[in-house]
Amino acid sequence: MTETHDFFTPGTQLLVDHRGGKGMRDPALLEQVLTQALTDRGLPPQQVMIQPAEGRDGVTGVALLSAGHVAVQSWADQDYMSLDLLVPGEGVAKQLADDLARALLPDWTQIRAVLRNDFTPLPPAAA
Asked: Considering the chain, what percentage of its residues have pLDDT values greater than 70?
């Protein structure tokens, strides 16, 4: 007899890369943009901490949610920002990524999705 489980999946985590745009060196702007975007999506942050990155030209920070987070790192001298979005709700992370892109106006964006707690067996390799 095969045992089956219903596994909890917290959702899809998005890894977002921005080239160019606002906020690369501005912790106050990023805090305001993150707080507003999360609140508009019904996810008011419990705490937001954005600060200048130590030892490099950029910022580092996180917005803590009751069931997720948004982490941000920028390297202004490279014109690059990374965002890590893990938020509850089907499709909410993509909506949030779009909201942040509209506010920060990057020249280029790349988004990769990772389904968390997904241990679906891979299909057998072709012989």
From this structure: 89
